[in-house]
Amino acid sequence: MADQETQGFHPGHNPWAVALTVTIATFMEVMDTSIANVALPHIAGGLSAGQDESTWVLTSYLVSNAVVLPMSAWLSEKFGRKCFYMSCVALFTASSFLCGLAPSLGMLVLFRVIQGIGGGGLGPSEQAILADTFPESKRGMAFAVYGMAVVLAPAIGPTLGGWITDNYSWRWIFYVNVPFGLLSLFLTNFMVQDPPHMVKAKKESRHHPIDFTGLTLIAVGLGTPDEPDAQSGRKRRHFGSDHLDRAPTADPSGLSCAEHFRI
Hints:
Elements: H1 2-7, H2 15-31, H3 40-46, H4 51-54, H5 56-68, H6 72-79, H7 81-101, H8 105-120, H9 122-133, H10 139-167, H11 172-175, H12 177-191, H13 196-204, H14 212-223, H15 226-236, H16 252-262
Helix pairs in contact: 2-9, 2-10, 2-12, 5-8, 5-14, 6-7, 6-13, 7-8, 7-9, 7-12, 9-10, 14-16
């Protein structure tokens, strides 16, 4: 039914302009998965933190990003795809600015979590927007553009992050997202519109409650601090001992999540 309604939907702007618009924020979001890698020593030194502790700048973003992914479809139906996408861009942009202002490692990790929450919904939303904007005969080309952005962004990230850190400051690897985020918000507001089936889904969304149990298990399972255990293992030579034999019991929420969705 959604495909039939989409076939009769004609966006008010050139589909390729829409594709470029929604790719801007997604490119920045994917690039942020790797742009901070080479800046970790500078971040650790600037915030008086240890090298091991600074890795949470990376893992916190990736974990919160993954937690939001399963919720994207439900949130798009609940609030409308355009509204949800713009909210994600706004949250990602604002948190990027706050990351640049962070006075301590703890605050930076907190802002990175918020940044990941905002960025987590961008990829799924863009793919859905492309599918509704382009006719079926051109969707392959549209998704090829999306694929290029997703592949190039993490490859460019370390190089760009290193150049910015060496020539300016590690804080600018986060500030650089702000102008592109504002540009994305401005263009999305005028270029993107929800197709009829999304407008209908928004009206009917109150009849489709979200699975809070499953999402809670996913959030707890992914958010379980395994990285400190790994760092501790490297320091205390736990690897190769029975320490790892007990590892599967350290995250019962992950097993519960698997059993919940299996049922």
